[in-house]
Structures are given as C-alpha cells and as structure tokens.
Amino acid sequence: KQEVTQIPAALSVPEGENLVLNCSFTDSAIYNLQWFRQDPGKGLTSLLLIQSSQREQTSGRLNASLDKSSGRSTLYIAASQPGDSATYLCAGGYAGGTSYGKLTFGQGTILTVHP
Amino acid sequence: GAVVSQHPSWVICKSGTSVKIECRSLDFQATTMFWYRQFPKQSLMLMATSNEGSKATYEQGVEKDKFLINHASLTLSTLTVTSAHPEDSSFYICSARDHGKNIQYFGAGTRLSVL
Q1: How far apart are alpha carbons A69 and B61 in whole angstroms?
Q2: pLDDT tens per residue across span A85-111
Q3: Which of A2, A43, A90, B28 has its CA 20 to 30 A from that of B45?
C-alpha cells in the first residue's frame, strides 16, 4: 500500500526564518512528487513538481528535493513571510496497474509564519 | 498554466436530494479525471478515477451508486452525490490529467453542506 507521511503536522515560525517541510513515502515506484499549497477553504495550488528522474526543483524561494532511494522529499522555504502561512501537501504520483496516474497525498503540514 | 474549472464552488442542499458537481478542463483534453474528498483538517482522499467513455474506477469503500460519475467528453466529468445526507457534507475536489505532460491540474473545489 502506498502511503505518504508528512512531518511536522504543524509548524510556527517567525517571519524571515528558513524552514524545511518533510515528506516520506513507502513505495519508491513513484513517477513524480508534487508539493501543493492549500489555503483554508480553498483548492490546491501546485508549487513544485519533481519527476522521478530529477533530484530537485526550484521556484523563487522554494526548493524541493527528491530522494527515491530513501523515500523522502523535502520542501525548503527561504526567508519565510506571513503570506506563506497555509497547509502544505505533498503527493506521490504512481504508475503501473490500477495505480496508474493516481496521487497519494500526505496529511499536510500547517505552516504559520508570524510577523 | 492549464486550468480546471469546478462548479459550483459551494452548494447547500436538503437531505435526500441529489447534487451534481462539474469538472472541466478548459485548455486541454483529459481522458482521465480524478475525484477527491477532503474532510476538515484532513488530507485529500481519492474517491474514484473517471475515464472518458468508460466506467469510473472507485476506490475501496466508496459506494458507486452513491457517487455517480460520468465522463462523457474529453473535457467534462461530473460527480453526482445521490440522496445526500449530512455525513456527505465535505469538500470535493476534482483533478484532470494532462497525459502529454503527465501532470494533474486541480479544480478549486466544491464545498457541499447537506442540511
């Protein structure tokens, strides 16, 4: 069974701090790993997508890494801002058989950046 | 980027009525769409995979007669919650898979409240 776990469940940091969110997955047969942001009561905003052949992706202050061998991905946020406050979800994309195209989501990390 | 439109964004209905939610891919063809459900403060759980021109594939524990899915065209999938009850109240999110890019794009979600 494919499982995705995120730690910590919640994180509160002062503005300006650099932070790391962690994601681990049990099935290394992922074909990609995505990080999403979700604001309260809203849908998902895709932040970064890492293909299985890649090690990391960067977008602005965000950097995501992928290590398939250890079953881990991290999302690094530099110089955090109050506007970064949201729930961050990681999801593993799987291929093969009945899992083809499915995303398995972690439970999310609730991030609060206070001024 | 690609856009997925989900409608309505919010619906309130009486217990026993049926509610239809639409998911449209606006600028690409999606032979596969996915329907997720999210309870408060929880992650997304895949309900079913919607395949254009064929029957949907439901995840274990999801009642196919309760949650009717129709994917009649390459840009539209609908989820109908039949005979809704208060326990069906939740946030429903769809996604559409762009096969060319092997990426899922998400709708903004529909908040269903059953009285």
Answers
A1: 32
A2: 999 999 998 875 555 678 899 999 999
A3: B28
